[in-house]
From TrEMBL:
Taxonomic lineage: Bacteria, Bacillati, Actinomycetota, Actinomycetes, Micromonosporales
Superkingdom of origin: Bacteria
Chief site of localization: membrane
Enzyme Commission code(s) on record: 2.5.1.62
PANTHER family noted in UniProt: CHLOROPHYLL SYNTHASE (PTHR42723), CHLOROPHYLL SYNTHASE, CHLOROPLASTIC (PTHR42723:SF1)
Name under which the protein is recorded: Chlorophyll synthase
Source species of the chain: Paractinoplanes abujensis
Alphabetical keyword list: Membrane, Transferase, Transmembrane, Transmembrane helix
Recorded GO CC terms: membrane
Length: 285
């Protein structure tokens, strides 16, 4: 593969929508329309939140996860595992991608730069020693939930809105949903993480507890969304009826799909959740 192809492979394009979707919701919430008010700055934000931030974060992750990646079937084709790139090359890529993310963020605004710097710092703290929060149960969940569920939608909001006006209720809903989705992913890598000595949430507490905690977080997120709709706060009251119908279905889907989580099952859960997500976007415009 060419160097450019390897860089894309390390940045894992299938991860980019994990930031793009909540960022888009934040953008729609700020603009009250489905199409962006400021397309150039929106495109720059998508560039930063997709390939640049994920590229920087995942190069760090690959560098420090090599022992577990070597025994993880899902990571068998990772460039560092196959030997197509070496650690020195990944470190060089990290510096360049991180710098590109920060420089591009300057065109969006100073607080956006601060947010990107914070995400890069959390990415380092998650993967790299001495902190390596991935191996500190609870912290691994908190970091991912904060970045995906709070920072990403706040970044979308900040493209055109005042970052200080970002609604905390939406942040809470995002935090709970993101945590609920992340917890089962620690179960999918349980054998590899156990073998490598990485004490993730699932390694520390077990798959059964992880399942219960994830389900509780999912139900809590849905409950907060219902409460917001009932009080017409951030979530429009017009969604209350549809939510009352879809909430039992979403709880059932989560309970079934995360019982023995796999990547295809988590993808299916994302597709199920896309339906009320689209409904919310339509309701606030």
């Amino acid at each position: 593969m060419t160097a450019a192809t390897l860089v894309v492979a390390v940045s894992r394009p299938w991860f980019w929508p994990v930031s793009w979707v909540p960022a888009y919701l934040g953008l729609v919430l700020a603009d009250r329309q489905l199409t962006p008010v400021d397309p150039p700055r929106t495109l720059l934000a998508l560039l930063v939140l997709g390939p640049l931030v994920w590229g920087a974060v995942l190069t760090q992750n690959d560098l420090h996860d090599l022992p577990s990646d070597r025994v993880n079937p899902r990571k068998a084709t990772a460039p560092l595992v196959t030997g197509e790139v070496g650690p020195a090359t990944l470190r060089r890529w990290y510096r360049r991608i991180a710098a590109a993310a920060l420089l591009t963020a300057l065109f969006i605004g100073p607080l956006f730069v601060l947010g990107v710097a914070g995400v890069l710092l959390l990415g380092w703290a998650y993967s790299a020693p001495p902190l390596r929060l991935k191996t500190r149960p609870g912290w691994d969940v908190a970091v991912n939930a904060l970045v995906v569920g709070v920072v990403s939608p706040a970044a979308g909001w900040a493209v055109t809105g005042d970052p200080l006006d970002f609604p905390w209720q939406f942040a809470l809903i995002g935090l709970l949903f993101a945590a609920a989705v992340y917890v089962p992913t620690t179960v999918t890598d349980l054998p590899a993480d156990t073998g490598a000595g990485d004490t993730t949430f699932a390694v520390r507490f077990g798959a059964r507890t992880a399942y219960g905690v994830g389900l509780a977080l999912w139900v809590s997120a849905l409950a907060v969304a219902l409460l917001c709709a009932a009080t017409d706060t951030v979530v429009p009251r017009s969604t209350l009826g549809p939510q009352l119908v879809t909430v039992p279905l979403l709880v059932t889907a989560y309970a079934i799909l995360t019982r023995r989580p796999t990547i295809p099952r988590m993808a299916a859960l994302s597709l199920v959740f896309a339906i009320p997500t689209a409904g919310f976007a339509l309701a606030i415009t």
